[in-house]
Amino acid sequence: MSRHMMAQxxxxxxxxxxxxxxxxxxxxxxxxxxxxxxxxxxxVCKFDPAVDDLRLFWQGGNGRPFRTFDALSxxxxxxxRTLLFAMNGGMYERDFSPVGLHIENGRRLSGLNTKTVxxxxxxxxxxxxxxxxxxxxxxxxxxxxxxGQFQAQKPGAAFATxxxxxxxxxxxxxxxxxxxxxxxxxxxxxxxxPDGAVYFVMTKGRVSFYDFxxxxxxxLGVQNALFLDGGWAPGLYAPELRRNDRPGHGGYGxxxxxxx
Length: 260
Prior knowledge:
Structural class: alpha+beta
Largest sheet: 7 strands, antiparallel
């Protein structure tokens, strides 16, 4: 082999390495892991909305709710895409329709719910324990806002889901949460860190609202976090942890997912 041909070969190899490196630089290091935070065990999933393909799903092409992670995974597979992560994405009615705002691919499929429910705190459904809020994302950015602020600011969002209550608002834990509460349940939620990273957290046991809020604020440094669901409803799809949770009561409503 001549020196000229060898030089050309080395150039091709260098270009290939450069292209591979560029692709690696844009690949997210996001994913899920088991973590112990503030004395309790959780699953923490971290993603970058500027890199990861974060989406929201509710219904399939037949107009029916997906209801399970398997159904969503199969539908994506038929389109040549892969489900990398999924989580129950917020409160839903008995027919699996969203209780509040649901924006999917820029389409508002369900409006913002501003209803107020009065009564004893223990009798008010979680969604209506105001302030509730909206998790939204698009154009490489994500955020969590109290519902009234979302309505006033109208941030551009390709995707959004409303749930409640807010766990943390501007660094302050929801005022209705009690430090010595005996209301311990499985819970899942989402928060956006100051650097833009999105954290999804799933309990591995039962915790109070107050302790769950502290995980976001004191454990992860998140200033705004939103409760997604609890009780029998929290669900997680994380292949790296061998998690594909089966839903109780027939299925999930909105599903937050990362696809490839």
